[in-house]
Design brief:
Layout: E1 4-7, H1 9-13, H2 22-33, E2 37-41, H3 50-56, E3 61-64, E4 69-72, E5 77-81, H4 86-97, E6 103-109, E7 112-116, H5 123-127, E8 133-136, H6 139-142, E9 149-154, H7 159-170, E10 174-180, E11 183-188, H8 193-203, E12 211-215, H9 221-226, E13 229-233, H10 238-243, E14 246-248, H11 255-264
Parallel strand pairs: 1-2, 1-12, 2-3, 7-8, 12-13, 13-14
Antiparallel strand pairs: 3-4, 4-5, 6-7, 6-9, 9-11, 10-11
Helix pairs in contact: 2-11
């Protein structure tokens, strides 16, 4: 019996233009009305969730920053935070700096973002009114408050190769993944979308077999492997397509909605 449906956002639930289709909105509403808990599970920080929440009319829970933070979407209250221990975080940052000379670093805090000089900021960051960004001159400032994710950008770096090297140099001190070209996302050791979803499932009296999840990028791998039914959208990264139990249509073809409709439609 399905008790929880979990979906990644970008490249999975959202279309390529960043919108939620009407079909997807209806499907999510129908799932929730059937008594199934719907959870957004994303690499996004909390401040980037408002547009998605508003499009869905969703008032539930979101697992953010690849599992490092859980947010109550009804109240915008932070429920749990799994941040780096400051000393460990500094050691991780030191190790990552040795990977290449052209890397730029940023950190996600529960309530904002800090980055070093030269870190490229995307369009999304400049458009969202809740985006609180600080330029950092001293590494100590990165860990002046809880860090839920370290971000690493490198010009011309092949992201999967960079990730493999990052795993080696961090030596178990952190969780290394990525969800977009040229950007590594580093969480505290053991923190993944799967770890946060497992904890949330336990709070709802559910096991992995009661959970269906959707994803498209390597930061979804642990989640898709943990759940009873892991589903990749057709546009997913090859690693995700290999791990998933099945594949649905692409994000632009309402792949998530197609499966959700089958969950609430009697056979």
């Amino acid at each position: 019996m399905v008790k929880i449906v979990a979906s990644d956002i970008d490249g999975t639930l959202l279309r390529s233009d960043g919108t939620v289709s009407e079909r997807t909105r209806r499907a999510v509403a129908a799932v929730e009305e059937s008594g199934v808990t719907f959870v957004l599970v994303t690499g996004r920080p909390p401040r980037w969730l408002a547009p998605v929440r508003d499009q869905l009319g969703h008032r539930g829970v979101a697992i953010c920053a690849n599992g490092a933070l859980v947010l109550d979407l009804h109240t915008d209250e932070v429920v749990t935070v799994d941040a780096f221990e400051p000393d460990v975080g500094r050691s991780v940052l030191d190790a990552l700096r040795d990977l290449a000379d052209d890397l730029n670093f940023g950190v996600e805090w529960p309530d904002g973002f800090g980055h070093g000089r030269g870190y490229p900021r995307g369009i999304r960051q400049s458009e969202l009114v809740r985006d609180v960004v600080f330029e950092i001159d001293d590494d100590e400032e990165f860990f002046s408050r809880p860090v839920i994710k370290v971000l690493v950008r490198g010009d011309g770096q092949v992201v999967d190769e960079l990730a493999s090297r990052a795993v080696e140099v961090t030596d178990g001190m952190a969780t290394v993944t990525w969800s977009s070209t040229g950007l590594l996302e580093i969480s505290a050791s053991g923190v993944t979308k799967a770890s946060a979803l497992e904890r949330l499932a336990g709070q709802h009296g559910a096991t992995s077999e009661d959970v269906v999840a959707f994803g498209d990028m390597p930061n979804d791998l642990a989640m898709l492997e943990w759940v009873g039914r892991g589903i990749a959208v057709a546009n997913a990264h090859p690693l995700v397509l290999d791990v998933a139990d099945e594949t649905t249509a692409s994000n632009d073809d309402d792949g998530v909605a197609q499966v959700l409709e089958s969950l609430v439609t009697p056979p």
